Amino acid sequence: MTLHVGVLALQGDFAAHERAVAALGHRVRQVKTAAPLDSLDALLLPGGESTTMLKFLVEEGLMEPVAAFCRSGRPVFGTCAGAILLAKEVSSPSQASLGIVDMTVERNAYGRQVDSFIARIEDAVPALRGAEAVFIRAPRIRQVGPGVEVLMRHAGDPVLVRQGPVYAATFHPEMTEDGRVLQTVLGGLA
Questions:
Q1: Is 174 exposed, middle or buried (0-12, 13-18, 19+ CB in 10 A)?
Q2: Could you give the residue numbers annotated as active site?
Q3: Is the whole-model pTM more than 0.90?
Q4: What tens digit of pLDDT does each residue of 3-27 get?
Q5: Where are the domains of the chain?
Q6: What is the SS3 assignment for 31?
Q7: pLDDT tens per residue across span 46-83
Q8: Mean pLDDT, to the nearest integer, of 94-102?
Q9: DSSP string, 56-72
């Protein structure tokens, strides 16, 4: 089944997400206004700079429409900055968010750009063991609520979590050839 997947295209490397979704055989649509949200099966919130994304979400009147999509029961996947936007609480520094996933996220917790790294994740649900994860100025999930399922961990910290149909990753799965993480998020629909 071909899905219609939206990628928030306000800032960040949304093009990499578009390529990853297309490689899985799905249709991709950039989301810059609220108009296309009603026609989508799923929505991706890419990496980038969370404060800049937040600013554009407010300026474009997208905060409530995107939050409503997140509450609609359709799959949503936030990676890196997208995970920060989905978090209930954000620290270092504190900032507003959509407040969708019951988790506390610390921004840039792994360090600066020069501290970026790639890791093969073995501490994961069976279908995702050995997945390659690219961490770029990555946030760290410091705490998750009781309704949040941890699907992958790195060095003991959650790096991929799920609350209902909403997923958040502190890494960039779209930057590898391994489509398993994105397929897991979209797989419930296909």
A1: buried
A2: 80, 172, 174
A3: yes
A4: 999 999 999 889 999 999 999 999 9
A5: 4-187
A6: strand
A7: 998 999 999 999 999 999 999 999 999 999 999 999 99
A8: 95
A9: HHHHTT-HHHHHHHHTT
Residue 33 has a CB neighbour count (10 Å cut-off) of 11
| Distance (Å, whole) CA 185 – CA 162 | 9
What are the b/e assignments for 69-88, b being 16+ CB within 10 Å? bbeeebbbbbbbbbbbbbbb
C-alpha to C-alpha distance for 24 and 58, rounded to whole angstroms: 31
Cα distances from 105 to residues 6, 12, 172, in angstroms, run: 24, 19, 16
CA distance 98 to 67: 6
Q: Note whether 103 and 148 are within 8 A (CB).
A: yes
Place of tokens 């990753």: 169
The CA distance from 77 to 85, in Å, is: 11
Structure tokens at 105: 């996220």
> 4-187, which class in CATH?
alpha beta
